[in-house]
């Protein structure tokens, strides 16, 4: 359930509602929207009507939420969330493009990629320092050295940064070097890690699991928010189906479905979804048309030499042309690309 407080409700009234709910065993989460405050309350919904909340001063209405996810639900907030990662806002009119190599491989590779994606209009730099690889013999990432390079690339270009963490130790390291933490598809249901990411307070990019339903994905976001961290951006990156023509099957209908059910922004990763360079541009266009708030695109200065995900990585030139196409599309769908 959420208790929507009216615009003029003061601190005392808010505290009174909070105390009453806590007295009856509800777990409370205060959500401050731009225009109003709502109190999310998780507990026994059979007793709600007996609490007399509607009559308490400052209460506008009570909204029961039947879905298993509460804090993530659109009803709990009544408006779309804007997630701030330093100077970048995700979920507003601007389409946010995250780009960079799959893995940080060297200083030269990362800095070249960073300069080129910035030049083309990306606002967030990605690069994996801890790579969850299918084979234990594949390149596993530069770890802390990679994080240092991300920080250096950010200092030089002004781009904000996102990197994937794979466990609590890598989260501890990464939080000091990057601006946003990515939870990868393989860890979407690592519930202890989700809680730790929630406690870190850092903005989170939460990818959809390889075989996760939309509800499971939203429950993963609920884990993060339930620890007090509301800064979650969801990323559709393709799911496993019987189809083998593409690496995964990009579930674009997930974008409007999630936006209907949740206040969180949703971005799309056409690189991992398709696994193929030539499919990245058409699926990027389709993602924006479907309402995505941004894109995550793998770009490598020399994709043929990439240590991971080369076949799906764009060259900087391809990325530049794609950005030009996206800039033409954006106004037609009421969005902007800076
Ligand atoms: C990645 O972004 O490099 C990555 C490993 O993505 P996913 O978790 O979606 O496979
Ligand atoms: Mn990758």
* Unreliable segments of 5+ consecutive residues: none
> What global shape is seen?
elongated
Q: Bin the strand percentage.
A: 15-25%
Query: Strand order within the widest sheet?
Result: 7-8-9-10-11-12-13-14
Report how far the terminal alpha carbons are from each other: 38 Å
Give the CATH H-level superfamily of the largest domain.
Aldolase class I
What's the domain count? Answer: 2
The kinds of small molecule bound in this structure are: phosphoenolpyruvate, manganese (II) ion
User: What is the CATH class name of the largest domain?
Assistant: Alpha Beta
Mean pLDDT level: 96
How would you characterize the overall build of this protein?
The protein is α/β, with parallel strands linked by helices and 338 residues long. The chain has 2 domains: 2-64, Alpha-Beta Plaits (2-Layer Sandwich); 83-333, TIM Barrel (Alpha-Beta Barrel), CATH 3.20.20.70. It has 11 helices and 14 strands. The strands form 3 sheets. It has an 8-stranded parallel β-barrel with strand order 7-8-9-10-11-12-13-14, surrounded by 7 helices. A 4-stranded antiparallel β-sheet has the order 2-3-1-4. Helix 3 (107-120) packs parallel to helix 11. The longest helix has 14 residues, at 107-120. The two termini are 38 Å apart. The mean pLDDT is 96. It binds phosphoenolpyruvate and manganese (II) ion. Phosphoenolpyruvate is lined by residues 102, 128, 164, 184-186, 207, 237, 272.
